[in-house]
């Protein structure tokens, strides 16, 4: 068989976009970047030209939609400069008074003349990278679809003959020839902006087409910041398998570890289920603290609680989480769903695992993740993919799931068997005029666990886990009732953390 010649790629200046493109845009080809106004086409195009400038390659920006001053203002808003990038604008002359540059009225020029003007400027500048913004303005110069196609073909043949990489922008304001334009392009990248009912708009992109080259299909979230464009590639869990020791992670409380059948197994997901205030986050903190004491790095993602509240509560439990965060032994992130896209959240988790080698990840809570982004249609599937990825990396994952009401609702908002390998059920119960807390393990895929129900308490000196409660009734009904001794925690197996 003949040897396959590797396809040369042009880096975009956006590392994560290059990852989706499997190395970048094919060199010497014509690429279409399309999306409605405001989706980020110009910003991505400028990032591509700046990358070319840093690599010592000459770039040319041909604009038919805005003048040079507007383009410079866009670049300046990101802290960039257009120095070293040739810019040629074809805009109404009244917008260019005082400028010494060739300007034309697009509405008064035939399409063929405008294309010829573009070709002449490319020959004059002889760039390696060209951006044409936007093809929609060319489309307005003729109502003849055949003439438009012929001129675009002529421009394509000219560019291919020069081995020049070209990025054409299209704002999709005229839909009648979009499909035909796709057929003429080597690749098509689609940008989309989704307005939420509350919070920041969500931006995403996908590679609709790329001839003869591999790429990652599907939608990928991205964000535009002042400094750069951040793309969050969609997660494919099966691409991240790794070898790891499926040992157990202990909590530091032998009674709790005994209840869990020795501890939490690496490469599994444990869900802590119970009503608000029953101690789910405290148990998660217990495992985080134990991991830090062993010299392991932990990551904590909070959708509900501020860091100040978490730090104060951790001190009340004898756990100084703030010190661990300051020492970079715990990575704490406040996840704000009204500003955060699902793809960005997954990317943040990946960075904690891949860059900082997090061995335990806590997500608090799953309810907020699922309920505060109602516009998203596949959050449960996306979360399942994330959990599979974490399992493949040998991470101990703890999900916190709050049930409705004080006593809890046995109808859970998610399928526990779908999301978790182990399920720990926490309940309030009444005994001798006090509201107390019980803990039990109802599921563990990776081994034998204790079937008993134990009481646990939270004290200023830590967490206490008591002996088995023998006279506990109705735990699975959501209204458990204890009919035994007044103080079930009194016994030889009581421990504090």
TrEMBL record:
> Any idea of its EC number?
2.7.11.1
By what name is this protein known? non-specific serine/threonine protein kinase
Q: Name one Pfam family in it.
A: ATPase
- Species annotation: Azospirillum ramasamyi
| TM region(s), chain numbering | none
Repeat keyword on record:
yes
Q: Which UniProt keywords apply?
A: Hydrolase, Kinase, Phosphoprotein, Plasmid, Repeat, Transferase
The record's annotation in CDD domains points to: KaiC-like_N
The KaiC domain, residue ranges: 8-245, 247-479
Any single GO molecular-function term of the entry would be:
protein serine/threonine kinase activity
PANTHER family assigned: CIRCADIAN CLOCK OSCILLATOR PROTEIN KAIC 1, PTHR42926
């Amino acid at each position: 068989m003949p040897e396959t010649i590797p396809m040369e790629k042009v880096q975009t200046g956006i590392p994560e976009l290059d990852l989706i493109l499997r190395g970048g845009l094919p060199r010497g080809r014509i690429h279409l970047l399309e999306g409605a106004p405001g989706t980020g086409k110009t910003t991505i195009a400028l990032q591509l030209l700046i990358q070319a400038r840093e690599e010592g390659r000459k770039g040319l920006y041909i604009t038919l939609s805005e003048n040079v001053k507007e383009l410079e203002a866009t670049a300046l808003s990101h802290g960039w400069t257009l120095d070293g990038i040739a810019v040629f604008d074809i805009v109404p002359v009244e917008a260019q008074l005082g400028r010494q540059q060739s300007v034309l009225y697009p509405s008064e020029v035939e399409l063929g003349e405008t294309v010829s003007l573009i070709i002449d400027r490319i020959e004059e500048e002889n760039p390696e990278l060209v951006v044409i913004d936007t093809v929609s303005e060319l489309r307005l110069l003729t109502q003849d679809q055949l003439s438009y196609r012929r001129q675009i073909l002529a421009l394509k043949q000219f560019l291919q003959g020069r081995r020049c990489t070209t990025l054409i922008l299209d704002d999709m304001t005229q839909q009648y020839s979009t499909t035909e334009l796709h057929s003429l392009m080597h690749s098509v990248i689609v940008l989309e902006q989704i307005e939420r009912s509350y919070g920041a708009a969500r931006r995403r992109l996908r590679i609709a087409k790329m001839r003869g080259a591999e790429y990652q299909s599907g939608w990928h979230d991205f964000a535009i910041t002042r400094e750069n464009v951040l793309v969050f590639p969609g997660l494919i869990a099966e691409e991240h398998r790794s070898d790891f020791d499926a040992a157990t992670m202990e909590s530091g409380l032998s009674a709790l570890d005994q209840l869990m059948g020795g501890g939490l197994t690496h490469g599994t997901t444990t869900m802590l289920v119970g009503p608000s205030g029953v101690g789910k986050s405290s148990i998660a903190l217990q495992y985080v603290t134990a991991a830090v004491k062993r010299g392991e790095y932990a990551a904590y993602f909070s959708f509900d609680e501020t860091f100040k509240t978490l730090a104060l509560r951790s001190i009340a439990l004898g756990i100084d989480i703030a010190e661990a965060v300051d020492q970079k032994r715990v990575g704490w992130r406040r996840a704000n769903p009204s500003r955060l896209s699902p793809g960005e959240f997954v990317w943040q988790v990946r960075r904690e695992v891949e860059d900082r080698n997090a061995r335990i990840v806590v997500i608090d809570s799953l309810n907020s993740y699922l309920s505060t982004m109602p516009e998203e249609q596949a959050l449960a599937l996306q979360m399942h993919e994330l959990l599979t990825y974490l399992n493949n990396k040998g991470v101990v994952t703890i999900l916190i799931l709050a049930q409705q009401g004080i006593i809890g609702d046995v109808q859970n908002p998610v399928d526990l068997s779908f999301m978790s390998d182990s399920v720990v059920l926490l309940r309030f119960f009444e005994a001798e005029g006090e509201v107390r807390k019980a803990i039990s393990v109802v599921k563990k895929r990776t081994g034998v666990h204790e079937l008993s129900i134990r009481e646990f308490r939270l004290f200023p000196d830590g967490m206490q886990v008591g002996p088995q409660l023998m006279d506990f009734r109705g735990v699975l009904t959501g209204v458990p009732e204890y009919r035994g001794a007044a103080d079930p925690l009194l016994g030889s197996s009581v421990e504090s953390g």
